[in-house]
């Protein structure tokens, strides 16, 4: 157990404590002090403080990545690519920034975009995106990884976090803005038809949802 010194004693010994810190560096034993032998503060070499700060930042980056991953896996369960794994690990280690993680993730899926073609692949019914992807599997993989990187980059919510409709639309735009042209914008949708189509999917019948999405694309929404 670390010894707790009175503040008056630490004041007197401070020059010697600093000399020992300079001499021993990070290996120097810290000095705890406080009133009535209760620990209230601690002196330690600056190198130790820097290491603690680095670990704290690393833990914060890890927490951010894990929370984002858990959220994505609820909506888009499945594995991520080895490239994404490596880049998230580099972000957690502090080797790249959140912005660089997002840039690399989006760039990995970016293909030449044909703005005049509402369906990149009419047979698969892939939604139009900024990425120009041609298969549902590609788009799902892109969504899984880009929407993982986006919340890490945008860890702080919009100010003030009101959680009203404009706030929720802004969150949607910030997360999906690298993938789709109009995230957060109003979409003209028959709510009853949407519920019915979703229920049909739960029963194993995707046809109503496919027809609804076809109508949305035809209408340009």
Keywords:
mainly alpha, 4% strand, 3-stranded mixed beta sheet, single chain, 221 residues, 8 helices
What's the structural blueprint in terms of helices and strands?
Elements: E1 4-5, H1 7-24, E2 31-33, E3 41-43, H2 46-75, H3 82-92, H4 98-109, H5 136-153, H6 165-176, H7 191-202, H8 207-219
Parallel strand pairs: 1-2
Antiparallel strand pairs: 2-3
Strand order of the largest sheet: 1-2-3
Instruction: Kindly state the percentage of residues in helix.
Output: 55-70%
* Rg from Cα: 26 Å
Residue ranges: pLDDT <50 for 5 or more in a row? 115-121, 188-195
Structure annotation, total helices: 8
Structural class: mainly alpha
pLDDT averaged residue by residue: 77
Number of strands: 3
Give the termini distance in whole angstroms: 67 Å
Main sheet properties: 3 strands, mixed
Tell me the series of helices and strands, N- to C-terminal. EHEEHHHHHHH
- What general form does the structure show? elongated
